[in-house]
Write a structure and sequence with these properties.
alpha/beta; four-stranded parallel beta sheet; about 20% strand; globular
């Protein structure tokens, strides 16, 4: 089982970004980084990267319909 962590980074062209992320299984981010995905069609409570477990650090973020791969942690 892989236990890697990737920090969200700027996208690179040609789909290389998602290819590079394929080897990771976990992503950590803050509330603002997660919510920036809403501008690109991300639905609240859904994973930004479908194949990864998400740990989002926030004191106030909560979701009505949360995917099991999305975890909100109070720092």
């Amino acid at each position: 089982m892989m236990t890697s962590v990737v920090l969200l980074a700027a996208e690179t062209g040609g789909g290389k970004y998602m290819t590079d992320l394929a080897g990771f299984d976990t992503v950590i981010m803050g509330k603002k980084t997660y919510e920036s995905g809403y501008r690109f069609g991300l639905q609240p409570g859904q994973p930004t990267y479908p194949h990864m477990t998400h740990y989002i650090f926030s004191e106030i973020l909560s979701f009505e319909n949360k995917n099991p791969k999305v975890n909100v942690l109070n720092p």
